[in-house]
Amino acid sequence: MHAEKLIACLAPNCQKLIAVGDRRIHTDRSLLGKIQFEEIPTLHHLENIQPIIWSAFVWISRLIWGLLRTSWIVFINRKKVDVVVCFLGVYYTPILLIGRILGKKLVSFEPSGGITHVKYKYQGWMGSKLVTQLLISLRSMNRQLADVIGIESMSEIDQGELEHWAEKVRVVNLYVDTMYYHPFKSLSERPYQVGYIGRLEIAKGIEEFITAAALLNGKNITFSIVGNGSLQSVVETRLMHASMHHIKFFGWADSPQVVSHLNNLRLLVLPSAAEGLPNVILEAMACKTPVLATPVGSIPELIQHKITGYLLPDCSPETIASAIEQALNDEDLPHIAHRALVHVEKKYSLESSTLQWQVVLDELIH
Fold this sequence. Notes:
Blueprint: H1 2-10, E1 17-21, E2 35-39, H2 52-76, E3 83-87, H3 93-101, E4 105-109, H4 114-121, H5 128-145, E5 148-151, H6 156-159, E6 169-171, E7 193-197, H7 206-215, E8 222-226, H8 232-238, E9 247-251, H9 255-262, E10 267-270, H10 279-286, E11 291-293, H11 299-302, E12 310-311, H12 317-328, H13 333-347, H14 350-365
Parallel strand pairs: 1-2, 3-4, 4-5, 5-6, 7-8, 7-10, 8-9, 10-11, 11-12
């Protein structure tokens, strides 16, 4: 999904776009004449294949093959390519190195909070510190090689330790499709339902969300959980308890289902300990669904407390439960939802994101 949005922003700004990605990427038919698509293997979540050792071997093999193939594609198209954009990841150092050797202009678009997520996800694993240090080293090499470091918000300069590279940093955020993500139910038509949509991981605060929901049992509030991840079995086990009957788990959802879920919520909660710029918050705001989230990553640039949403002072279940009740009883809730929609339409539209990329590419080429 993120790659599709990047392609939509880049395509109007170039004569030809060579897009390298996996088979999940789909592009607008109107852009097909401008885009040459090259396929590489899909990288899976490690827990999706068992045993985990075999999963890691398959993942590493696919990664290496993808890097080699992409580097080759850059090399054989060296007479056509002016700019190489590496998007969302830290593993693409070999591609940037090939681009540098060939004299190309390079953009390294960094994932928001990427290495922080790794620290949370693999904490306690044997070798997790080594993996984290390796990723930090790769990220530093990418920053050294790149002409431009793309980020989604200025807050990432401090959080991502980018002060040393500040002269290379450019904000090129992605957009939310407000024609697709839109409200078709007013807040007054929605049930008193509070939702969580996202990966089921430690850093996302899903366990704290469930505990907070349990504290609100008997308050005439229902809860929904949408997503999958390494904690799915933990979530399903906890929800089997009789005291959790007011919480429903839906599992993974595609985009149309996410739109439907968002339009049935009076409040979306993201009690994350680490985040970048969560796409689901943009989508919720576009659907006029108020958001309650922790002020981590780029979230404070999206949400101003009691103006375009609500911010949590901490991630404890008691704090989350109290904040949920306060938000649902806030008479200003419909106005907060409206201001959130206006903010998204103004700053996170396709037109705005395309213009940001145009400025970056013009700067590199001219």
